[in-house]
Each structure stands twice: as C-alpha cells, then as structure tokens.
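Batch job 17 of 40 flagged for manual review because the log was empty.
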Amino acid sequence: MFRKLYDWVMRLAASRRAPVALAAVSFAESSFFPIPPDVMLAPMVLARRDKAFLYAAICTLASVAGGMLGYAIGVHLEPIGLFILKVFGHPEGQAEFQRWFDQWGLWVILIKGLTPIPYKLVTISAGFARFDFLTFIWASVLTRGVRFFGVAAVLKYLGPAMLHEFEKRLNLYSALLLALLIGGFLVLKVFL
C-alpha cells in the first residue's frame, strides 16, 4: 500500500502540475486544511533537486498568503475560526491563544511557525488577538521561509542518499512516520 502511494506522490511531484498543487496545499494548510505542505515539498525536491529553492519559495509565499486568510478568519469570521480550532482539538482555543499572544506576542508566531504544530492555529489566533498585521506578515515570512527553505536545502544536498535509504526501507519509515504523526497529535491534544 505504501509503495503505491509513494510512487503516486513521486509521479505527481515530478509532473507539471506539482507547483500549483504545492501552492494550493501550502495556502490551504495555513488557514483550514489538515495536511502540511511538507508532504508535497519533500518528494518534489527529491524529484527535481534543481528546483528545490523555487519550490521552497512557492511553499513560503503560498503559506503566508494562506496565513493572511487565517488571520482574516480570526478577525472577521469568528464562528468559523472557533469551529476550525475545535476540529483541531482546541475547543477553548480562543482564550488560550489570546493569553499566549498577550504574554508572548511575536514569539508565538516565531516559534510556532517553525514547528510542525498546525500553522492555522497561529494564524487564526493572531486574528482573534488582533495582533499587529504587519508584524504578523514579516514574522510569517521569516518563520515559514526558514522552515521550508531548510527542508529544501537538506533534501537538495542530502537527498539522493536519503532517498535511496528511504526507498529501501519504505514500509519501516512509513510506519515510523505514521507513529510520529499520531504521537504528535496526541501530545498536542494533551499539552495545548
């Protein structure tokens, strides 16, 4: 099963439609979509290492644009924002994130934007908190850029060896990735 899915993603990553799909996923993930763009970015870079930084730029710009939508949801569409927080396991998230922004401000964006924590939680909450929009934008560009350009650089320069190892043990690494994802969601649920 993992082999077919892997082969499909690698074919899509090498196709002409890949940059558009990457932009769409990056945009949507920053405001409402559950799947992080790394799922597309990594195989795209592995398939076309010469375009690694172009893909990272697409991912960054689309993610920040999607973050603006998330911010707007927090400011103007509060019921939808509350619903999204609830779906992602934070039914009381508005008050919790408001405290975070009141206490830590910019650091919430700088730290959470680099982590695998769903960025939509940060963007919508920044809107709820009416956090300074220009600061939100430049902090988002910085953190999302560091994250996606970092992933692209590692895969561009270490990719062939990593790809060979990954393909050799695809089932093992797929199971580990699945366990990490489930574990990550459980940790988020308990600690956030």
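Reviewer: the log was empty due to a logging misconfiguration, but the result itself is present. The mean pLDDT is 78. Unflagging and moving on to job 18.
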